[in-house]
Design a protein that fits this description.
It contains three helices and eight strands; from the N terminus they run H-E-E-E-H-E-E-H-E-E-E. With 196 residues, it is mainly beta.
Length: 196
């Protein structure tokens, strides 16, 4: 009886630090500020602490590379949009235009583009129609998209340690000035394997 109890105690103390590494649910993310004059943004180029990047803006510690001793199996892309000011109803259409006319691309060193999606697709915003009542009291609903901000990948994207990668966000149409300084965060989410 005491032998099994001792083994149970040993079992509860094993696993936190392993010799074979560990696997975690993980996201590496980066943030850009919307600017009417900037049509292309390169994400993950300024690591944490560089160019004033704080932890809420990025958690990647190397520019455009997964750190040594890590491998990220990207299984989903997450997109977050945060306004910098209170918006008026007139700002809804410019926001919808930005979502529909902005593309995110992922490239790996020495490879063709690994994926391209509009923000509209990544956010699950299939229908983007602003509505103004034609008569007082009109309340006719329109089709509502399943807006979720998580885009699962059918095939995982592998980001190995020290392999350069690039994520670009490209606006086909210059963002409206009412959206200036809004934040768009892109997160590469999946399973991180790292040396303990």
């Amino acid at each position: 009886m005491s032998g099994s109890r001792e083994q149970a105690l040993v079992n509860t103390q094993v696993g936190t630090y392993g010799t074979e590494g560990e696997q975690l649910d993980w996201s590496y993310y980066d943030t850009i500020l919307v600017a009417a004059a900037t049509l292309t943004h390169r994400l993950f180029t300024n690591p944490l602490g560089s160019a004033g990047k704080a932890l809420d803006e990025t958690n990647l510690t190397l520019a455009g590379q997964i750190p040594q001793g890590q491998l990220l199996d990207v299984r989903a892309i997450k997109v977050f949009y945060t306004g910098s000011t209170v918006k008026a109803t007139a700002n809804v259409l410019p926001l919808y235009t930005l979502l529909a006319r902005t593309v995110i691309s992922i490239k790996l060193a020495n490879k063709e583009t690994m994926g391209q999606w509009t923000l509209q697709e990544l956010l699950g915003a299939a229908t983007l129609v602003p509505l103004t009542p034609t008569a007082a009291g009109d309340n006719i609903p329109i089709i509502q998209p399943r807006y979720h901000g998580i885009f699962p990948l059918n095939k995982k994207l592998i980001l190995a340690a020290l392999t350069p990668f690039e994520v670009t966000l490209t606006h086909s149409v210059a963002p409206d000035a009412s959206l200036a300084n809004d934040r768009i965060k892109v997160s590469l989410a999946g399973i991180l394997t790292r040396v303990s």
